[in-house]
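ligand=thiamine diphosphate
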Amino acid sequence: MPFPKTPAIFETRSIRPGDLQQKPAETLVTIYAWMQLARLGDNRILELFRQGLLRGTVTGGQGNEAFIIPLALLADKAIDVVSFTQRGFGGHQIWGGHFCEHLNQYFANAESPTKAREGNIHHGDPKNRSLPMISHLGAMLGPVLGMTDSQRRFGREAVGFGFFGDGGSSTGDVHESMNLASLLSLPVVFVIENNRYAYSTPLDEQHARGTELWKRAAAYGIEGIAIDATDVEVSVRTLERVIAKARRESRPMLVEAHIVRLRGHAAYDTCDYLKPGENEEFLKDDPMPKARARAVAAAGAARIDAVDAEIAAFVEACVTYCLAVPRPNPAGMEADLFAPAEAPYPWKPTIEGVTENLTMAQALNRALRKILAERPESVVIGQDIGLYGGAFKVTEGLLKEFGRPRVFNVPLAESACTGYALGMSMGGHRVIEEFQFADFATEATTQIALNAATMHFRSGAAAPLVYRLPCGGGLTFGSFHSQELESFFLAMPGLKALYPSNPQDAFNALLAAYEDGNPVLLFEHKGLYRRARHSIAWDPAYRDVWKPTVLRRGDYATLLTYGEMVLFAAEVCEYFAAEYERPIELIDLRCLAPLDLAAAKASLERTGRLIVLHEGRRTHGFGAEIVSRLTEGSFPFLKAAPLRIASLDLPVPFAPELEHEFRPTKETIIEAISKWMET
Ligand SMILES: Cc1ncc(C[n+]2csc(CCOP(=O)(O)OP(=O)(O)O)c2C)c(N)n1
Ligand SMILES: [Mg+2]
């Protein structure tokens, strides 16, 4: 069924600077019409919600139209970048798509742009640089920065628009992002939509010193302004200047837009926390009557009455259309978690420079050099990865060889920088991000595990990213520099993970992760960086690292492990073969997600005995998943209960004597297996 015909007035999705002066009637009618569509749409959505026809949360933009509409009309939709928030319904309409497409999102029906996998306003149009918001306020700013930078690197004079409320302005992401944008000189317009409340929390319980949030800009070396954003003329004049300046100077700006919130926080909000008379005050500032009066003065009442009637009929026709769309189909949900595999890149079948006697750190360095040399879209970021070459010297020499736009230090702001990496990668670049220690990735949990990991599932857009994570203990680094975080992250869907145990696998893993269209965690055990020296070679089968490898044959038991524990396990298997004539089959998993246990299953069904060994903690550890999957599938073949060998359920202790007790060692592994053999 075709969508209802869109009124002709909505063919105009842009106004140009000066239009308001040069053709005021046409411009004011255009602005008013879009405002009215947003207002009627928001109101109608609220009604539908109250009738039980929509679910989730309905957070309307009633009261911000005089700002969001001029902004979206003035933006260059062919190159600019945006991520609208919970108040951005009007902006979405202008950025693209038919009104019904946006409404389908709210109905979460079979034609929903997110395939009904996300509700209400959590949609976007990544191909047209509108990034779908996640609920976590502030978290979309980093991606806006990244995609704007990506556009600029492709030579497009783009501006990015990032929104947050007076409440959201307290999040760390807002501050990290403003600092990062200033540092990288990115033309991002930060907009605080200040409606004086964050849900029920008034400004004076959100910010210690008054309400002049725009003044924070000065601290980041950027221009900040505040405006009364309930009057379209003020908004247009201000935004013309702001956008032109950001575009011309490639600098961020902060705009505090004073708006009103006319329908409470969300559909369910009782608003009983408002002060007496406050709602009446808000209503006095309703931007719609003001905008309508201006449009009437410029184009005549008859014209505006006709516009109103046409929009009302259109909205109703669209509601009728959407109500008839079938409910969504769950088929394909699981297949859509990851972006599909792409063809291998046409890598040169060579490795530049020395390839003999390399440590794992050097092998990773060779892989990074290869990627930077052969893939112009690649970018390497991280703390101290520039001149210094990274805490573990993995990026040594890269800045010198490839220069600053490709390789650069980022500030101590893991969340914004990881969000930035996501935006860059969605824009057409591919970022390899080094976390100084894997432990600090917890600072970017929202960006990694919620924003990037769910991107393909909810929007259909690929998020090709490599997160390099120097992990693991045994080096007396203590609780916050030694952790194994695979179970922590892999409890969340949408992430892939590789964990190499030797230089060749590490080299291959970086290439394989890089060319994957999904966020990939690359765990690099710090204890392996300089453990031994090996030769590496160009390996056309580098993608095999996505599967486990059998390192040693045996028929007594099957031992699964990964990372540094592979080295311990090899010695342990040698011991049991030599001392007990009990050959254990040793499998290096290499890839932790997606988990491929076919080889392990085949082995277990031959040996009948399963040992899982890892350095991560035991409770909720990765071994629990492996044991349970293999037991479920191969229970009749088991001759003994599976054995799990893992670290203690403690924070990683500091002193060597304590850490030695905490994690598995060759001796404790032998002890555990010997005891298990006796039972
Ligand atoms: C990081 C985070 N914490 C809590 C919430 C729950 N929450 C959703 S909207 C909201 C209030 C937001 O207020 P503000 O930023 O002023 O935006 P407004 O809704 O007023 O436009 C809260 C607390 C959230 N979405 N994100
Ligand atoms: Mg607010």
